[in-house]
Amino acid sequence: xxxxxEAPAYLDTLLLVLDLLGVFFxxxxxxxxxxxxxxxxxxxxxxxxxxxxxxxxxRDLIINxxxxxxxxxxxYLIPPALAAALVYFRLVTQGRLRRTLLxxxxxxxxxxxxxxxxxxxxxxxxxxxxxxxxxxxxxxxGLLRDVVANEVPEIFNRHGLYAVPALFGAGxxxxxxxxxxxxxxxxxxxMLAVFAFRLVSxxxxxxxxxxxxxxxx
Amino acid sequence: xxxxxEAPAYLDTLLLVLDLLGVFFxxxxxxxxxxxxxxxxxxxxxxxxxxxxxxxxxRDLIINxxxxxxxxxxxYLIPPALAAALVYFRLVTQGRLRRTLLxxxxxxxxxxxxxxxxxxxxxxxxxxxxxxxxxxxxxxxGLLRDVVANEVPEIFNRHGLYAVPALFGAGxxxxxxxxxxxxxxxxxxxMLAVFAFRLVSxxxxxxxxxxxxxxxx
Amino acid sequence: xxxxxEAPAYLDTLLLVLDLLGVFFxxxxxxxxxxxxxxxxxxxxxxxxxxxxxxxxxRDLIINxxxxxxxxxxxYLIPPALAAALVYFRLVTQGRLRRTLLxxxxxxxxxxxxxxxxxxxxxxxxxxxxxxxxxxxxxxxGLLRDVVANEVPEIFNRHGLYAVPALFGAGxxxxxxxxxxxxxxxxxxxMLAVFAFRLVSxxxxxxxxxxxxxxxx
Lengths: 217, 217, 217
What we know:
The structure is a homotrimer of 217-residue chains.
Chain A: H1 9-36, H2 41-62, H3 69-72, H4 78-88, H5 97-122, H6 127-148, H7 163-178, H8 184-203
């Protein structure tokens, strides 16, 4: 398991809780997508696991964890199961599936880009590459969810920014870590900022420039 | 390589044979899909490798095998090559591609959910997580096959159950292992049960509940 | 890190340069695809990273590198960033996106099937399995690019050969290595041959046989 020797034990516990919360948010986004696409309960459980655990597992494979967190700790089974149950019993949707999905996805993104960057840094990855892994942790679960369900991945949706908030959160986390300022308070603030950044960018329809300057205009 | 010290040597050999057989069945399902989609022989070989080896490689990456079985043992090259050849010379299809594909896919699923669970357990994974890895071994190859070929993955097909038989087989395997009752006979019985479960559920059009209760009715 | 003890140091440096060049070519293919699909700049950067680094990262995960090359060496960040910038400022396209994409993709394929095979061999993988990993290094980046962007993967495109040139290049590289004839000159020649093979096969519309003999005729 990963542990930063210099970090106080409470930070490890806190980050486990936040990581589980991130798994839960993405898992809900997976089950909501299954509901919208009229998949069955099994497909819902499957997308909950894929969306919730995909980002962290890919990150852990890359940083060469012994066994990915999610497969070493049975606690990680709970959030996807809970998510599928909540969606099944219609406790997280009031007929506005798209909007609810958006909020849960944003919350997962905010948590994962921070916990992902921190996990990579604690494993000894260089700060600049840890940013890349933090972004990957944030976007890969949602990407797998969308690719497997044959949706256009959210990351290519031009309605609001997606990877930019993740990059912002991962970059800030890596900077704070390098400056020895990464703690529960700063981590929580970064997460809140990423969450707000994502939702505001969606509401305001902020758009990134085109892939090729001037095209599509 | 994986080896369970307490297991008799014949069980390792038997499970290698069954694993190769599972690779073959999924590989045939990949080549049949290529034939149905009118891909070329190269695409057929490619889908045979992806469907046949995908599940086991992902499982081995997660349990952190030194090098995945399939890349450490050249024997694993034979089933996909054979599968593509059989489909090319039209030896496994009589004009009913969809049905033949279904049977081979079910056989692969039955073998892999058992061998996958056993491989994870032998690598020291906890029984409950080994179930998850067994299911993953069973469904990931077919999932990659379908995603890459731009099909709706079989796992979301509402016509019959897919992941449930795999979960049943992986769960039973893990239970038998924990009770020290996992041997060639019980393994074979579980595989047969999964195979029958999958095909009967398809024939009887058993359906899982919706992702959200009451929706789509 | 990988190093073949018997290889002169210049070969390692040369192969790093060629690998970075391959990343660049595939990264450009990713950004060009983003431009053709009218994705935004972020999508362009994302597809550049995925197409450029995907093949090598999957290869390194399979041969169980400590941390994949691309995440251990910040130099690998440069080609994708450069590629996205060149496409953004319209420096690599003159209105013929499809054709330009084809050439860059072919160049990446040529470089990666050789460097991928060599990396696997240097890590101690058996020559025959190293061929498979070389082909995977060549095709996986482009495959991920196409799957994520919801395109039919180039590997299934019946217009010209794709995996065959990669197999030819990986096979020849593995043979040269086994014969102790793998050096900068032979590596470069193999790359050129693969590049020419791919483009000529496209121009001449060479086609592989069908997945099932006689079908689709």
